[in-house]
User: Fold these one by one.
Assistant:
Number 1:
Amino acid sequence: MNDISCKQEIKQITIPTPFAVGDVHTYIIITDKVTLVDAGVKTMEAWEVFQRELSSHGLKVLDIDQVVVTHHHPDHVGLLDYFPANIPVYGHKRAHPWMTQDQRYFSTHEAYYKELFERMGVEERFYPVLDAIDKPLRFACQRGLTSFVGEGDRLDGLANWRIMETPGHASSHLVLFDETSGTLIGGDLILADISPNPLVEPPYVDEAERKKAMLEYIHSIEKMKRLPIKRVLPGHGDIVKNVPVLLETRLKQQDKRANKVLNYLKNQPATAYEICQFLFKSVYEKQLLLTLSETIGQIDYLLDKGLIVEDATSKPYTYTAGGK
Ligand SMILES: [Zn+2]
């Protein structure tokens, strides 16, 4: 432990979002440098609240030396557009094409999701949903990362903070762990009241296959279990204190959800869309992309455990309970 880490202060700044998740938290770590972790959604209201909260801590935007983003979702990066252009912004390289709104990357998305819908057996009446798929990006930033960071990296002024890769909720997801105090700035990985949705992302620019978000999420939670975390400062909701218990609860909940799907498939084979309808009877129509992501997560989980079999000979694919 060095002097600087002893003098460290952390401030939570809470910013409204137009999304169902509600407010988002950002964090200021004050050492010999001022570091902002995450930068809320791009609305005038969020910008005003952010500046007001910042000044209540005796700071202004120009005092911020550097920004780290935990992942690329709009509610964590949007305000960067209002920051001076010379502030360094760090994050995982996979966040970059989302943050710059790289049209070359986005141009592949519609075809990707359409093929995914066909594979899953989604009714054609829902295909227009794909036209609006990039809509939340108007709340995101349009500036990229200055430098990429990843597993084990440390930044100036944050010598006791270890950056760790924790994909799952987003493939770009990072957390920051303060080894001296046991504080984890957890983005959306560990939330007190909800388990984060393992969102399906089209394959990254140089990859052929999508990442299996649910499996990555489980892996990230297992990784967090091995850390002496005392508290989590999350992206949304209350600060998490009893971390080992919550991590265990999340893993058990996931297994329970997967079992529900397994039991359903014991009665009949089904497409992913049918599983989605079964799991989310009342909400799947309104929240199609979120509920499909969750369903894909359960299928990936059960396939990985060898508990179900996929028939991919024709679209839509079907799933049957039972090992290979
Ligand atoms: Zn998120």
Number 2:
Amino acid sequence: MRAVVQHGTGGPEVLVVEDRPEPARNPGEVLVRTEAIGVPFYETQLRSGLIPAGPPSVFGHEAAGIVLDADDPNLRGKRVVTMSYTGGAYAEVVAASQYALVPGGLSPELAVAAAVPASVALALIKTADVKAGETVLVEAASGAIGGFLARLAEQRGARVVTTAGNTEADIDHRDPDWRQQVPEGIDVVFESIGGPRAAELTAKLAPHARILAYGMLSGEFPVFPVAGLIARGITLIGFGGPDAYGKRVAADRAEALGLVADGTLPPVIDRTYPLADVAAAHARVESREGVGKVVLIP
Ligand SMILES: NC(=O)c1ccc[n+]([C@@H]2O[C@H](COP(=O)([O-])OP(=O)(O)OC[C@H]3O[C@@H](n4cnc5c(N)ncnc54)[C@H](OP(=O)(O)O)[C@@H]3O)[C@@H](O)[C@H]2O)c1
């Protein structure tokens, strides 16, 4: 099969399309012929070496496709989305232990554009317990998770303040001083940009606010000195990890895909690329010129 293998760390050129043997399926896994493969931002950080990666192996974590083999023979021929923490998705065939059935009528491109980000967003919204009338700050609302977060918070009756690297959001986060523009009285922050200047948000928070720290788009984790949190009764939740919130995300996946399939949460696709153009796809994500998900077609 054709698959993309990472050779060292660096620019998009370290991702090379090669002929590889098809993966063997372990018990509990589904073997899937892929139809669409997602390219989330953190994979560019893995490829560049900002996030440490393991030895060379088939790259990628999110794919949608048709089940070739599974423990349950009834799954054969069904369309699923697969998620893997260990790679293998940038390929014509993937074996994965985490999967969800794609609701009827949802294309593989839309399914892979939604499965991880919509379920992460839904789990974040539930964990924060966003309520009607609250004011919510969604950082990087131009991204897949941020976009779903903004829509879910609005659907719950919250007032949503968004940031993005363009002028269409409430605040343009390309300005290094953007946090000064955040209005006071924020009840919930969905913190994905990170970095030491995240602490500037503390002054903008209402008493008993909740900070959900779930990303590091800037390349650094956010810093919040505890003194500023104690004084105002603020809760800081680190959201991530396969054994912590990963289970919550997996549990919310079917509900999230249902909201996507019934039109409540339409996914946004930026561009699709053939698998052979994987380097161009990574360059597109890194360019930050698009809005929505970049998808590879094997
Ligand atoms: N905790 C978890 O369970 C979990 C799970 C999945 C992903 N994540 C994390 O969630 C975050 C968002 O992921 P995603 O898949 O939604 O991303 P995505 O769809 O690939 O979008 C990337 C976004 O990043 C923004 N961005 C890139 N570099 C930035 C920078 N230096 N400063 C500010 N914004 C920047 C872009 O905004 P502009 O181009 O508009 O500037 C764009 O909105 C990532 O950090 C990812 O690692 C966490």
